[in-house]
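This section describes the prediction task in plain terms. A model, or a person checking by hand, is given the sequence of a single protein chain and must write out its three-dimensional structure as a string of tokens. No templates, partner chains or ligands are provided. The sample shown here is typical of the held-out split.
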Amino acid sequence: MSPAGGMPNSFDIARAGALPPELSELIARRGRVLGAGYRLFYDEPVHLVRGQGVHLFDEHGHGDLDAYNNVPCVGHCHPYVADAIAKQVRTLNTNTRYLDEQILDYAERLLATHGDGLRNVIYTCTGSEATDLALRIARYATGARGIVVTSNAYHGVTTAAAEVSPSLGAGAPLGEDVRTVPPPRLGESAKEVGARLAADVRKAIDGLGQQGTRFAAFLADSIFSSDGLRPQPAGFLKPVIEAVHDAGGLYIADEVQSGFARTGEAMWGYQRHGLDPDLATMGKPMGNGIPIAAVAMRPELVAEFGREVRYFNTFGGNSVSIAAAAAVLDVIENERLMEHALSVGGYVRDRLADLAADRPYLEGVRGAGLYLGVDLVDPEKRQPDGELALRVVNELRRRRVLISATGPEGHTLKIRPPLPFARYDGQRLLGELEQVLLAVDAAQTTARGSRQ
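The expected answer:
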């Protein structure tokens, strides 16, 4: 099972005394000033002082291969993005209450990647704020309150976003007008997956109606990352959006994880499914680490909302963040990172399948572009094995390769590197993973022998 609070790969503070003194002291200092709310990754947390491309470096100059972080989507400290930020911060940094061409230029470019339906955009500073705003717009436009999400979804940490994020655990209860549905199943056709999910959504909408709550929106991460990664088969969401619209609701596509060319097949995850959502939220990768997020929407949804609701975000879309975001789009286009993600991701996925072929504790290799997953299971009971997944994650960390785990049971290895991740980086990842798996093979052989 995943740790309390639904966060796989969290550091256990009780282990701090077993770490080297300098790490233990730094962790204790962190606890004194930041408190218990800030969690660390890995059995032995990583102390970082520098990043470059797809590598992170510790205080001793040792480099870790980053196969986990999607926020720096065009690579850590990309010089083109860094130069754009530095130039803008020396020139002007102000908010959207003043006329400025840069925000308009970027908005036109951004909206052009979404297609004809989503023609307005509102900027925020974080993805959580974007979720909050999308919910407000949906509820205002429909005059309804009910929201449907998947059963281990994560959409943010504001009060409203946490209420639609069941993966946060019992400490962050769902809103009273929120219902959940099981995530898409693995191993079925697009028609089967779509029909089942659409039926579950209709049932949840009916349940809201039975308690007297009208349905406002279905909100889904387009790659279902926290539900354990459900990227395939593309197209299964078409019956779902039809069910949502038939019920008078809106479809909100959460593109924080699957957007900005991550899947290699399209700029946005919903586009892989052939959808025309009503709203789409964007977040972390947008500015390569500079705080900027947004909601794109159909103009008719925000027309009255914009007139009647006093919403503004003082520094959402500020000049420096817009410069960073525009530079990110430049890099994605100029370095052909969408095509790159498709090619390298396909290579890594195929090699993962090779590693899993003769290992009964590995199953369900899957992915889209540079977002990949594989499940760790008990080979006899065929049940999720979150403990084994964490052992693999932490053994890779000791070998200076960073990945994580996801899913409600924490048993899915999560491989989600910055987009410049090259084939030779994939070869290093796979080589180190193979060495870790050979140790797992030996341990399982020994365990079987002791039971016989």
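For orientation: The mean pLDDT is 94.
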